[in-house]
Amino acid sequence: MRLDAVELSVVRLPLVRAFETSFGAIAAREFVLVRADGGGLSGWGECVADVDPFYSPETTITAWHILARYLVPAVLGVALDGPRAVPARWRAVRGHRMAKAALEMAIWDLAARLDGRPLCERLGGAPRPVPAGVSIGIQPSIEALVARVEAELADGYRRIKIKIKPGWDRQPAAALRERFGGVALMVDANAAYDEADAPALEALDDLDLTMIEQPLDYDDLVRHARLQARLRTAICLDESIAGPRAARDALDIGACRVINVKPGRMGGHGPSIDVHDLARARGIPLWHGGMLESGIGRAHNLHLSTLPGFVLPGDVAASRRYFAPDLIDYAIDVAADGSVPVPPGPGIGVDPNPDRLRAATLRHERFTA
Ligand code: OSB
Ligand code: MG
After folding, report:
1. Where are the beta strands (DSSP E) in 140-298?
2. Domain 122-340, CATH
3. Would you list the domain boundaries of the chain?
4. Do 7 and 37 meet the contact criterion of CB atoms below 8 Å apart?
5. Pocket of ligand 1, candidates 217, 291, 300: which has the most ligand atoms within 8 Å of its Cβ, to mutate?
């Protein structure tokens, strides 16, 4: 395959509800959208970097810079032996995995569309409904949290994840455990704790949580391994799994028992397939995370989630929880049984609504071969 043009846009979409984590609250997503053109078709990718370097060191602006200056020129107009061959084109660029992922994933979408096949098949999965959970931000009160969880369970979601931080951890989790009995419940700290805070994390150990996600620093595998040895509850790593090598290191030293896969964080679908295959070979359960993506990124996530190693419900919830309207017309929705269907059709199966994309675009540039 060969790309004749790549278009980058910075798109801003207000969130239906502000989303608060241990690193702050956001009211809108502002991200780089990538369109890759070749063979008369277009593929789409969405960069998960945020405007602020809080979840990860990358930002919307750094992603734009790296894409425009290095990544797009590395793939434009050259013969590409499929999307798996893409990372080798930009091997000289260190890090910036979110920028790489946005373009790599657009190329996967394009390749699947050129094949006339759904992306999930090209990735090694098969169309199947994906079990979904929800991620609930830090709430103003326990009462507000309980009301949110009640509404999400009524919509069918199969697993509840709440964001925690020091001072908002044991109390909300225990309140949900008491109110909702045996519901699948987990917490995500987004790296808010230090090793010295281990007692606050040990205090969660009797709540029968399915896992504690990323309690310690984003790049710290060693202390996660020491903490895991002290906890009965499984640690799941998100931020720390930068790619296949971090996954291997984490499993080798016992830093986690579960992995949250986000292709947008790890350099794209190719590296995600590698992490999937490694975890599966070692019997480590996977689930698919989310980054408050628009329908473009969410569709990519659903397709990847159909691979067999994704055995736990993912953060792949309905569009209307995030955006009204979304960038796409197709409604990603949850069924009564808590599963989300993969959008049908070639590639990711969805396209941005052109008028909505134009209205939401803050910056745009087209690069040609
Ligand atoms: O840590 O999983 C995370 C959102 C933005 C950044 C990081 C995270 C999240 C979520 C929400 O938990 C997942 C989603 O619903 O898309
Ligand atoms: Mg997380």
Report:
1. 160-163, 185-188, 212-213, 235-237, 258-261, 286-288
2. 3.20.20.120
3. 5-116+351-368, 122-340
4. yes
5. 291
User: Which ligand sits nearest to residue 162's alpha carbon?
Assistant: 1
Pocket around ligand 1: residues whose beta carbon is below 6 Å from it? 55, 135, 188, 190, 238, 289-292, 315, 317
Yes or no: domain 5-116+351-368 corresponds to CATH 3.90.550.10: no
The pLDDT value recorded for residue 261 is 98
Unique residue bearing structure tokens 């808590």: 338
Is 303 within 8 Å of 293 (Cβ atoms)? no
For residue 127, how far is the Cα from the chain centroid? 19
At 257, the amino acid letter reads R
Note the pTM of the prediction, 2 decimals. 0.98
Cis peptide before 73 (omega within 30 of 0): no
Give nearest CA residue, ligand 1 atom 8. 291
Amino acid at 183: V
User: Which tokens sit at 368?
Assistant: 């040609």
Residues 233-252 have pLDDT tens digits of: 999 999 999 999 999 999 99
Q: What confidence tens digit (pLDDT) does each residue in 246-293 have?
A: 999 999 999 999 999 999 999 999 999 999 999 999 999 999 999 999
**How far apart are alpha carbons 288 and 302 in whole angstroms?**
8
